[in-house]
Design brief:
By secondary structure, the chain is mainly alpha-helical. Helices cover about 85% and strands about 0% of the residues. It is built from 2 helices and no strands. Keywords: Membrane, Transmembrane, Transmembrane helix.
Length: about 55
């Protein structure tokens, strides 16, 4: 995702991964708790990556 601001690149990756997890969970019939836990971990990872990017610049 070259050419995009760092925060937008992170946001697009996060949204894409959350949609991917949701679709896979729907297809395999995963329990809602697993999907919610993955969503929360993705949010935390996105926030950490965003904060790390702010520190470097």
């Amino acid at each position: 995702m070259a050419g995009l601001p760092g925060s937008l690149s992170i946001a697009l990756s996060l949204v894409g991964s959350i949609w991917l997890v949701g679709v896979v969970a729907l297809l395999v019939g995963a329990p809602g708790e697993l999907v919610a836990a993955t969503f929360v971990l993705g949010l935390v990872a996105g926030f950490v990556e965003w904060r790390a990017g702010k520190v470097e610049h």
